[in-house]
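Here is one record:
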Amino acid sequence: MNFHPESAPDFVPRAQMDALQLERLQKVTQRAYDRVELFHERMNGFQGVRSLDDLRDLPFTTKADLRDTYPFGLFASPIEEVVRLHASSGTTGKPIVVAYTKEDLDVWTSVMVRTFAMCGLTRGDIIQNAYGYGLFTGGLGAHYGAEALGATVIPISGGNTERQIMVLKDFKVTAICCTPSYFLHLVDRAAEMGVDIRTLPLRAGIFGAEPWTEAMRDHIQSQSGIRAYDIYGLSEIIGPGVAIECPAQNGLHIYEDHFYPEIIDPDTGQVLPDGEEGELVLTTLSKQAMPMIRYRTRDITALIPGPCPCGRTLRRMRRIGRRSDDMFIIRGVNVFPSQIEAALLAAEGTLPHYQIVLTREKGLDAMEVLVEVTSEVFSDKVGALESLHNRLASSLEHTLGIRAHVRLVRPQTIQRSEGKAKRVFDKRNLA
């Protein structure tokens, strides 16, 4: 294993990490209370934090708070000290605005260096950064981390698939950063162009910005020959670089010297013990411009007890398979897209491209699942298609507890995304 000096905090003893977390928690909670009106009002009578357990007594912060204080209402630093602003796309109302001081950017760069190092990347690697640049945090977060690592960065951003493939091949790229769904699209398009990704120097993918399943990872690795690593982050906390998988690929290590994790029951708000699934809540321990206290991510996961084979002492969380706000209800049943993806990819002959269409006919909800199948299956006897159709319909009913109409479609039927894949199309309110 190559060791990067920035990675030293990944291995500190537990007692030392706890002491560092408490020291930083005391400073950041006081800063938020003193400098941010919303925190001052909600933490009325705040007397400071004496232990890490005291954190659970503080109020939560939500995405609605960021929208309600748009644009600069949660800043704890004067604008003169803010050196960068990022924002979400704002497709569902006002965008989320996030701010960084110079020190915040240094932390972001540091955790991204540790991220790439954990994936086995070093000086001399050539990293194709296909995350979007601009207001989205993904592109620049990965960019500065890769540069600080000493790697060669190709700031290609998203889109223009043919050019992405040309650069992958001609520039001898060894690692790529993008969404997992877009990488699958690159693999498919490359094959159409006569380029076999498995013959290229590419050996690692750092994939994030959308939930994806273990079955999706298996498909990516078998089709491309690379190691697919799951990266986690969110703009409200810092951007990419909150957590990343190590080569053991058994949970994501959280950079808990900067981001303190809790798992709560999403309904009651009670803190849950390690190993129990719930909603991830994060507190920034070193953010200056815009500290977040107990931010509810809406991501569903669990903290994994026990040590990791890689030797890092950073706590791990299970990969994010779903979000509490991704859930849709159909005929009284709670359904998550990740359940459908797992059921589809468990069947041989399917491809990891699917859509879920919800409609309402005569007052009754209906769900149709479109899934692409391999060329071999589609061109085979009608019996093979029918058999696969029946297996998928049965698998979905067994998984979800309700029936779904399954439609098998040819490869390349479903439109590809150059960013986050849109899986669910809810047309029930349009009827």
Remarks:
- The mean pLDDT is 93.
- The two ends are 57 Å apart (CA to CA).
